[in-house]
Amino acid sequence: MERLTLTEHLTAARMARHWVCEHCPEEHLPEARRWIAELLTHELVANALAHGHGPLTLSLTHDAEGILVGISDSNAAIPALKEQTVHATSGRGIAIVDALATAWGYYPSHSPAEERSEVPDWDDGGWPVLDDDRPGAEESPALETFPEARTSPAGPGPTGKTVWFHLATG
């Protein structure tokens, strides 16, 4: 797994897009699908910049089936899939991820600044496998009611989250 730490800067989404494409070999994501990976990465980083705080950590792993990209931030609030209206001026990022990703989800984690993470179990293919009791384990995590942000950690538990997407090779 490769990682990149991003600061809260206007160029972070652009840097993240380019980094994902540079670090993903052609055999794991053909050129024709790279624009989707760039768009999804941009949307999740933009969400983390708008709604999270602190440094962001971008992670990437890949295999013959595709890529898995995760964005970790220091805000425990989970993104929600919102009903779209014609006149809405924001709120389409997760809808784009939901429509274009092979799969997506989230898991609670410690803030990237703490440099530790409560990651889920990973299957043999390198994709996250969430326990049924863990938030986000349902088949459609985007349709849940999500917890509000925590401004300070309540004990040793998670203080942030990682939102991830999987994009299949073809």
Q: Would you list the SSEs in sequence order as H and E?
A: EHHEEHEEEE
Number of helices: 3
- Quick one: how many beta strands? 7
Rounded average pLDDT: 75
Please list the strands of the largest sheet in the order they lie side by side. Answer: 1-2-3-7-4
Q: How can the largest sheet be summarized? A: 5 strands, antiparallel
Distance between the termini: 21 Å
Rg, Å, rounded: 15 Å
Low-confidence stretches: 115-119, 131-154
Oligomer: single chain
Q: Would you tell me the structural class of the helices and strands?
A: alpha+beta
Helix content: 10-25%
Q: In what range is the share of β-strand residues?
A: 15-25%
Please tell me about this protein's structure.
With 170 residues, this protein is of the alpha+beta class. It has a single domain, classed as Heat Shock Protein 90 (2-Layer Sandwich). 24% of the residues lie in helices and 24% in strands. The chain contains three helices and seven strands. The strands form two sheets. Strands 1-2-3-7-4 form a five-stranded antiparallel beta sheet, covered by helices on one side. A two-stranded antiparallel sheet has the order 5-6. It is globular, with a radius of gyration of 15 Å. 35% of the residues are buried. About 17% of the residues have low confidence.
